[in-house]
């Protein structure tokens, strides 16, 4: 078997070497080495910023499945026609939209789908790559959205299936947000990539809620929301599948100059066994999980029940509900955009100091001359105070609320 230890083969990675060593003749190896070493680069390279186009494309592809998964959270306040149509055809019985239990199952079925999809997602990404796995999940999300208006006219179980499909569509969003910056971002842009891509969660609310409010209150009706976002999801993922590659090295629009910038300072990744037990028992990881759990708890409450609370308890109209629900997430997205860029600039600080500096700075907003901004933050959170605490404060006493806080 010919050996590939020559310095002329130093540009090849270990996978290329293993593949070439499986061939039979040295002449065949030489021909393949030439082909492996060559990159087909297009004349159009986006001004050596193809990675930024990839980032924006991925942001849309991560946002749209999130929108599909939360659309029901808003349209549930606009679906009275289902109950009315039911009673025009039936003299007895009740519609599932009148059952709190049934609606709770519909809310939670998206999370069930997300868990089902999350379990095989990591090994599938290892085997097939993000391009294929994310495209399939996006198509499932689009199918769940496009068929949802038909499912509600069919039966309750068809609705559950559509919601599970929407959950499958968001199952690998967190994984993609964590992986892409390490693959496509330059070393000094990782924080910016991470902040922008993770804004998909906020952008989904910022886009979905006002648009849903306008469409629900228009002649198009609430069904049009599912069709519009479902079609946009299909289009975005067709574009993603066509344009994205799992490595910038194999992308024809990435110039040599940009490739060098992306790969500079990155270490070669070696495949090893995953130490799951050590990860799950590491104190730093546990604290990170606890932090995410707390953050997602508040985010999920706003996402699931914010529109219902504003419409049914505070008696906002449909349009006002859409814009008011999006308001806290606009602020969150702005802070994320700024924090990611600032984090990349503060290279002299550790990750722990990054977090403390940001949280400490926000704490100081209650002091003059920033008390005005503190009042804005308080005003945004104030309408939701009872909703957060009421399930844990049956007595309504100060001691009950103190326990929650």
TrEMBL record:
Q: Does the keyword Transmembrane apply?
A: yes
Against Gene3D superfamilies, the record matches this protein to: MFS general substrate transporter like domains (1.20.1250.20)
In the UniProt record, the signal sequence range is none
Primary residence: membrane
Q: Which residues form the Major facilitator superfamily (MFS) profile domain?
A: 54-405
User: Transmembrane ranges?
Assistant: 52-77, 105-125, 132-152, 164-186, 193-213, 225-244, 286-310, 322-339
- The superkingdom of the source organism is Eukaryota
A Gene Ontology cellular component where this protein is annotated is:
membrane
Tell me how this protein sits in the membrane. Answer: Multi-pass membrane protein
Q: Where in the cell is it found?
A: Membrane
The family database entries (SUPFAM superfamilies) matched by this protein are listed as: MFS general substrate transporter
Question: What keywords tag this UniProt record?
Answer: Membrane, Transmembrane, Transmembrane helix
Q: Which GO terms describe its molecular function?
A: transmembrane transporter activity
The protein, known as: Protein CBG24628
């Amino acid at each position: 078997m010919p050996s590939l230890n020559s310095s002329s083969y130093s540009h090849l990675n270990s996978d290329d070497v293993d593949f070439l060593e499986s061939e039979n003749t040295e002449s065949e190896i030489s021909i393949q080495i030439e082909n492996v070493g060559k990159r087909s680069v297009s004349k159009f390279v986006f001004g050596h910023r193809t990675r930024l186009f990839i980032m924006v494309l991925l942001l849309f592809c991560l946002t749209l499945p999130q929108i599909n998964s939360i659309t029901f959270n808003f349209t549930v306040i606009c679906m009275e026609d289902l109950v009315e149509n039911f009673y025009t055809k039936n003299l007895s019985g009740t519609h599932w939209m009148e059952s709190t239990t049934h609606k709770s199952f519909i809310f939670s079925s998206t999370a069930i789908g997300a868990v089902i999809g999350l379990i095989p997602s990591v090994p599938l990404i290892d085997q097939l790559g993000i391009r294929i796995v994310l495209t399939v999940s996006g198509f499932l999300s689009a199918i769940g959205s496009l068929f949802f208006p038909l499912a509600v006219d069919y039966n309750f179980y068809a609705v559950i299936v559509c919601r599970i499909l929407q959950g499958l569509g968001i199952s690998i969003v967190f994984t993609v947000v964590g992986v892409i910056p390490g693959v496509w971002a330059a070393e000094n842009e990782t924080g910016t990539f991470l902040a922008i891509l993770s804004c998909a969660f906020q952008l989904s609310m910022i886009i979905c809620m006002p648009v849903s409010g306008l469409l629900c209150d228009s002649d198009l009706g609430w069904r049009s929301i599912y069709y519009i976002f479902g079609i946009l999801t299909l289009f975005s993922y067709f574009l993603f599948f066509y344009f994205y590659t799992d490595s910038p090295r194999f992308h024809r629009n990435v110039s040599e100059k940009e490739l060098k910038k992306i790969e500079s300072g990155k270490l070669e990744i070696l495949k090893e066994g995953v130490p799951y037990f050590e990860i799950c028992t590491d104190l730093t990881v546990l604290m990170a999980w606890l932090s995410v759990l707390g953050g997602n708890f508040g985010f999920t409450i706003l996402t699931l029940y914010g529109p219902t609370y504003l419409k049914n308890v505070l008696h906002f109209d449909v349009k006002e509900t859409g814009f008011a629900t999006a308001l806290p997430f606009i602020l969150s997205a702005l802070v994320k955009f700024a924090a990611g860029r600032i984090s990349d600039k503060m290279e002299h600080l550790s990750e722990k100091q990054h977090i403390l500096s940001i949280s400490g700075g926000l704490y100081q907003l209650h002091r003059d001359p920033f008390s005005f901004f503190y009042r804005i933050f308080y005003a945004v959170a104030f309408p939701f105070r009872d909703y957060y605490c009421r399930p844990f404060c049956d007595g309504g006493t100060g001691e009950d609320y103190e326990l929650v806080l």
